[in-house]
Amino acid sequence: MKQTNWFERKFDFSTIQHTFPSILERLIGTPARIEEKLNGINPAFYTLKPDNKWAILEHIGHLSDLETLWQVRLQDLLQGKEELSPTDLNNTRTHQGQHYLKKPEVITQQFRELRAQTVSQLEALTEEQIYLSALHPRLKTPMRTIDLFVFVAEHDDHHLASISAMNRMFLSQPKQI
């Protein structure tokens, strides 16, 4: 099954559900899920770039690259800014980061540390702060703190699913690798 491209995804943040603890669990679990996923993939696949797209290690490096954006956007919300800080839609940091040349344990540890910082900030929020809102610059829709981190968890899962799809493809086409 083909996954929708990230920039084509639509998000609806119109409901109020008290699911922040569940969202935190997803965010906390992503580093372990990445490490578990890598343990199940042939290391020879980590640096392969099918169709000149990102390698598995680049997907993981990308999550680290964006973690600081999530932290900045959280601060935007807490500071009452009207609009969240924009991202580099070209993903320059990831393209130039050469994550495919790095050791997997370095990339995963960096992500683990950055995500722990984010989670620590989130665990300190009050219920009022969870529902602060600002305009998302690309989606042009209001996004509350809780919505932002649903978005982050979905982004994590998007890249984990991409890694799984790549692994399945590599396994099904061993002669082309």
Automatic annotation (TrEMBL):
Region forming the signal peptide: none
InterPro entries xref list: DinB-like, DinB/YfiT-like
Domain DinB-like: 29-162
Cited SUPFAM superfamilies: DinB/YfiT-like putative metalloenzymes (SSF109854)
Membrane spanning residue stretches: none
Name of the molecule in the record: DinB family protein
UniProt lineage: Bacteria, Pseudomonadati, Bacteroidota, Cytophagia, Cytophagales
